[in-house]
Amino acid sequence: MRKVRQVMFGALLALGASSALASQQYEPLAASVQAALHLAISDRAAPDLPAFASPQRQIWLNEMSGRLAKRMPDDAGRMEFLRTVHYEATRAGLDPQLVLGLIQVESGFRKYAVSTSGARGYMQVMPFWVKLIGTEESNLFHLRTNLRFGCTILRHYLDIERGNLFRALGRYNGSLGQADYPNMVRGAWERHWSWPTLTASNP
């Protein structure tokens, strides 16, 4: 029985099967917090992609692209995905490799993933966030929209938890205080996406 549980856990981690995990929980937001998050989501300026070609960032892009190739075979789509991950993570003050680890666990890099609780897209964002801080046009299956919501929400939880990543990840997944999910994200991050932190300025 123990071996069966270990095999099931390994498969769950490999697939990023978020449907078997908890999901973000609705929490009332103060009006000032709601307004600030809405502003963060609404600022939809496109990343300055030519600036991404700095040598350090290009090395990062090439390295991550190689690691992600088996999961995302399409070269153009993979590059767009990685540029957007880097831009939205950096914009929110997050490590892009952490975000890749979270996406691996949450959706297995599946753009149209939907959990049993209704969480959507790469970062498995719950639809109630659209009503809280988005607009009627917010499509959680859109690449940048999903990543912007997900990164903004994780940043919000990190701020609430004063930088405590373990607790912030627990909030993100709706499993605050439980170790399984934070450990899965950290494990994916460290095993598959670890990379020296970029020192270049934000895009």
List low-pLDDT spans.
1-20, 199-203
Q: What is the fold-level CATH name, i.e. the topology?
A: Lysozyme
**Taking all residues together, what is the mean pLDDT?**
82
Shape-level CATH architecture: Orthogonal Bundle
Number of strands: 0
Q: Number of helical runs?
A: 9
Classification by helices and strands: mainly alpha
What is the count of distinct domains? 1
Alpha-carbon distance between the two ends: 50 Å
Overview of the molecule:
The chain has 203 residues and is an all-alpha fold. It has one domain (2-18, 29-192): Lysozyme (Orthogonal Bundle), CATH 1.10.530. Helices cover 57% and strands 0% of the residues. The chain is globular and about 40 Å long.
Topology summary:
Blueprint: H1 2-15, H2 31-42, H3 55-68, H4 75-91, H5 96-107, H6 128-133, H7 143-160, H8 165-173, H9 180-192
Helix pairs in contact: 3-4, 4-5, 4-7, 5-9, 7-8, 8-9
